[in-house]
Structure formats: C-alpha cells, structure tokens
Amino acid sequence: MIGVMNLAIRSLWHRRLATAMTVVAISLSVALFVGVNKTREATRDAFGGAISRVDLIVGPRTGTLSLLLYSVFHVGSPTHNVSMKSVQYAASKPQVAWVVPFSLGDGFRGYPVLGTTPEFFERYKFRDAETIRFSDGKAFAGDADVVIGSDVAQSLGLKLTDKIVLSHGHTEDGDGFEKHDDHPFTVMGITATTGTPIDRTVFVSLVGLGEIHRGIGESIGSNTAHEPEDDHNHNHNHDMAQAVKADNDEHAQGSFAEKDGQIVVNSVSGFFLGAKNRMESLNLQSDLNTWKDEALLAIMPGVAMAELWKNLSIFETAMSVVSFSVVITGVLGLFVSLLILSGQRQREMMVLRAVGAGPKTIFMLLAGEAVCLVFAGIALGLGVMYGAMWVLGPWIEKKFAVTLALSGVGTYDLIFSAGLLVVGALVGVLASVKAYRAAMYDGLATKF
To answer: Are 287 and 58 in contact (CB under 8 A)?
Structure first.
C-alpha cells in the first residue's frame, strides 16, 4: 500500500503542471464552498446577535417583523406611536426590572436617529450579553448632546465636540425633509465597533429629540405660551419622569408636548423591556398584548429573529445550492482531468501490467492519485479561505457588520472534506477502470 502511494506521488510529480492545475481547481471549489458556508453562518449570527438580554420589544400593534426591523435594525418606521401611559403601565408591573423607551423618525446624513434615555447604553446588549462600550467620550447627559456609532464617526470624519444638525425624517439621500439648524447637537461620545446596527445609529435623548421639533405643529403640542430656553444643556437623566407629565395633560398633541417651557414626551415608537425573571416573559407578553387601554404588540426578540430568518431561508437555500454546484463542478473537473490523463497513460498501464501489476494495483494507483489531488486541493482551499478570512475579516465586519469567526476547522468542514476525499477516490476508480480496459486491448508495440 505504501509503495503504491509512493508511486502515485512520484507519478503526480512527473506531471506536475497538470497536477498543479487540477489542485488549484479543486482548491477554488473548496474555498468557495467553505466561504459561502461561513458567510451564511456569519450572516445568521449577525442577525441573531444584534440584540441580547432584552426580554421583550413592545410597540404599536402592527406586525412582528415590522416591529423587529424598525426597533433593532432601524429599517422602516412605525405607523403610529405608543403612549407613555403604556410605557408606565409596563414599568409598573412587579415582574419588570427595567424599561427603556425609544423614538425614531429623524435622520442625520443618511443615518437613523434614535431618541432614548442614557439607560439604553447600560441595558441594551448584543451577541453574548456584550455591553455597548465607548471608543471615545461617554453617553449623552444633556439635551444638546449626541452619541454617534463608530461607522457614523468614521465615514463622516466626526470627532468629540463636533456640531451636527439633525433632519426631520430619514430619506435615502440623507438630507431628510427638514433640517433643524436652530438646534445643533454636540458629539459627546462615539461607540466602539459592535458589528450591529448600533454602529450606524445616532443617539440623542428623548427630550433633546423633542427640542428640535419645537414649532412643528404635527410633532409637538403646547398648552402654554412658547418660552424659548437659552440653555438646553442642563441634565435630563430623568427623561422618563418628565415624559409621564404629558399623560396628565389632556391638551398635549403629537409625540412631544411643551409644558411650562419644558419638553415632555407624549408618545414613543416603542420600548425595550427586561424582566426580573426571564420565565415571566411569556406572562408579560400576554398581559401587554391583551391590555385594553391601548393596542400593543410585545414580541420576544429571539422568536422574532427566528421568524425573520425563516422568511429569508430562500436566500440561504440559494447560497447552499451555489456552493454545492461549485463543488460538483470541481469534482467533474477532476474526473475529466483523470480521464484525459488516463488516455495519455495507456502505454504506462501496459508496462505496469507487463511487470506483474494486477488490476488491484492499477486501481489503487489511480485512486491514490485522485485522493492525493483532492487532499492537496482541500488543504490549499482551506488555507486560502481561512487566510482570506483572517486578512479580510476586519474589513468585512466594518463594511457589512458581519463577523467571520476564526474558530478553526469545524466539524462541518471535516465532514465535507472526508466526503470529498471519498468522492475523489471513487472518481479515481472510475478513471482507472477506463485505463485498465484500454490497456487490455493494446499491445506493447508502438503504433505508427
């Protein structure tokens, strides 16, 4: 057996140009197959890791996927808002540990703006309960402070203390419908890269978001004469407390209201909720979904993510089909290559038979060559793929928010490699049958 494998390796080296081309073709197939599979897994992990340790997302009663998309991925917008009465109702439940409201609808040069409270940066987790960290600065403290995601800072060249102006609405061209030039924000913090939508989001306080809508009738109501403030940088760590005041104001209109010269929040796009005991999440979900005072929709992020990925399964299937097609193409290329080589090696086969090599030896020789070719192709393909992931991984994570984990060769890769080796051996046997039969009908005499 060892002698046959040694002969197979020497034979391949003698035809090293054809051998190299075959190995490269197989390695490309392997690299593409593994790359597609890794990308598919990384994409699924990116979806699932966008939010963690949040038991419920609550919003207006629309649809599960719609609420998930605009609250976590900031895609789309709610058709209507949730009153602060609902937020307070949820927060008052004894099973609830914390509630963080959020409001969407504005933008900054193509990036979504999320109005929330400073508690958001403590409560909102991603991947395996990772906390949002700051690469520079800290969370906003005043109404005129803003926190920007890492992608926003890098793409627009922003740094701490820079002034930015938000726009009403979030449009594709990034200009919005109306710029709020009268209320600029100061960059107080830049988040560290997370590989989630957080990197592409601009964060302000709920009261700060209300400040930029002063004078816009459809967004803010008033039950007192308008008294402009000279200083909007005072601390509003109690946004929730101020927001509740609007619930007792029968004349408040729109998302925000003005009372005694102060902005209070009347309604929000939704809120994130954390339970004291995660086993209580189902009861809380049922309670909020059946609350009679307001039509609410409470969803579990994990369940909603699974539903979203299920709806995207057609793309996952398409990627799998493409990857398998690539592998099949590589195997067919190997088979054709061995057939061509076997046709050119009839004299070699006759010599081997003349010196006593039986069918078993010839079969093992050609099958051994095929296995060597496939093994070299697999090794080269995996090396190229994992090397590319190591080099391009940071860029892909930054550009597409997809993390390609370098966790070594996985079980799936090993099973695939073993299967490909078996297929390669079978292809070698088929080629050896053709070569042996051809050698049986030819003599040792040279044909002219």
So the answer is: no
Counting Cα atoms < 13 Å in the Cβ hemisphere of 254 gives 19
Phi, psi of 236 (to 5 degrees): -130, 60
Tell me, yes or no, whether 250 and 177 share the same domain: yes
Domain boundary among 241, 264, 299: 299
- 84 vs 223 pLDDT, higher one: 84
Structure tokens at 52: 């963690």
Per the CB < 8 A criterion, the answer to whether 117 and 123 are in contact is no
For residues 317-328, one letter each, b for 16 or more C-beta atoms within 10 angstroms of the residue's C-beta and e for the rest, the string is eeeeeebeebbe
What's the DSSP call for residue 235? B
Same domain, 148 and 285: yes
Which pLDDT band, with edges at 50, 70 and 90, does 330 fall under? Answer: confident
Is 447 domain-assigned?
no
Asked whether residue 309 is domain-assigned, the answer is no
Give the number of domains in the chain. 2
* Integer Rg of the chain from CA: 32
Phi, psi of 104 (to 5 degrees): -120, 175
Question: What is the value of pTM for the model shown?
Answer: 0.74
Q: Could you read off the pLDDT of 278-317 as tens digits, one per residue?
A: 899 999 999 999 999 999 999 999 999 988 888 887 887 8
Same domain flag for 197 and 156: yes
Cβ distance 166 to 184 under 8 Å? no
Q: Are 441 and 346 in contact (CB under 8 A)?
A: no
User: DSSP string covering 313-327, please?
Assistant: HHHHHHHHHHHHHHH
448 inside domain: no
